[in-house]
Amino acid sequence: MNDILGTAIILGVCLLIWFISYLKKKSPFLTGCIVRLGSGIGTVFLMNYLFAQWGISLFVGLGPVSILTSVILGFPGVCVLYGILLI
Q1: Which positions ≥6 away from 58 have C-beta within 8 Å?
Q2: Cβ proximity of 33 and 71 under 8 Å
């Protein structure tokens, strides 16, 4: 059973990489949005985790507004979300 699951995961990752490379050739704008979305969500998760470990109560949620901000502005948008919480 573990062999089937491992094979499915590897196949899924390969298909995802192929799909992203296909999108990059066809639509660089859409690829950029997907990359900014993933990096923005990852940054919010990482920063929320680190702040919780350090005892700092500064948390950004992952609602539609914060996701849209990270897609449009990228990493600076995520910094703006944390900056707004400091005010």
Answers
A1: 51, 82, 85, 86
A2: yes
